[in-house]
Amino acid sequence: MDIGKKIKNLRLQKQLTQEELGERTDLTKGYISQLERNLGSPSMETFFSILEVLGVTPREFFDDKEQRQQVIYTQEDYTIYYDEEKGYEIKWLISDSNEKEMEPILLTLEKLGEYKEFEPSLSDTFAYILEGEVCLEIGSDTYYAKSGESIYYQAVKKHQIKNNQTQPCRLLIVATNSYL
């Protein structure tokens, strides 16, 4: 294992310069450079300090198995929540979406159902209406979109999606995980 190369790759993933890593570990830029070129060996204390700043455990650092990202998500990965009182079902299509920059969901609103009201945030939200018609309230403005139409908005005001119709509606929503 090329320890220096692995330290360098982790540092670059964290978008740190050698100088920044040095400052956070009380080491010099030159010493970090030497470690990355395998021209020196850190003490255990120094090594653990570097790993802490880089956000990995020693076990993760030395695990030779390459961490593969999950690319395909199946129905077994979905999480489903049903709110009988408000008349909606939400299906999280990506099991770890709260750790990602986007959160895709499939939302089904029963007749006259409504999804929860959201407070203002820095999120962008995209929705594609798969069936039925939805009512979108953003602040004091109201918008309607039907099957085959798309919605895109910045969530800078209180907002809520409702189904004012007597037929169910389904929509795919993708929101960014950015909060005020």
Keywords:
180 residues; alpha+beta; Jelly Rolls; 6-stranded antiparallel β-sheet; 3-stranded antiparallel β-sheet; 9 strands
Written description of the protein model:
This protein has 180 residues and is α+β, with helices and mostly antiparallel strands. It has two domains: 3-62, 434 Repressor (Amino-terminal Domain) (Orthogonal Bundle); 75-176, Jelly Rolls, CATH 2.60.120. The two termini are 42 Å apart. The protein contains five helices and nine strands. The strands form two sheets. The protein has a six-stranded antiparallel β-sheet, with no helix packed on it.
Helical content class: 10-25%
Report the end-to-end length measured between terminal Cα atoms: 42 Å
Main sheet summary: 6 strands, antiparallel
* Approximate strand percentage: 25-35%
Return the domain count: 2
Estimate the mean pLDDT confidence. Answer: 90
Strand arrangement in the largest pleated sheet: 1-2-3-9-4-7
> Rg from C-alpha positions?
24 Å
* Uncertain residue segments: none
Principal-axis shape equals: elongated
How is the topology of this model organized?
Blueprint (H helix, E strand, L loop, with lengths): L2 H11 L4 H8 L3 H8 L7 H11 L3 H5 L16 E5 L4 E5 L9 E8 L14 E8 L1 E6 L2 E6 L3 E5 L4 E4 L6 E8 L4
Antiparallel strand pairs: 1-2, 2-3, 3-9, 4-7, 4-9, 5-6, 5-8
Helix pairs in contact: 2-3
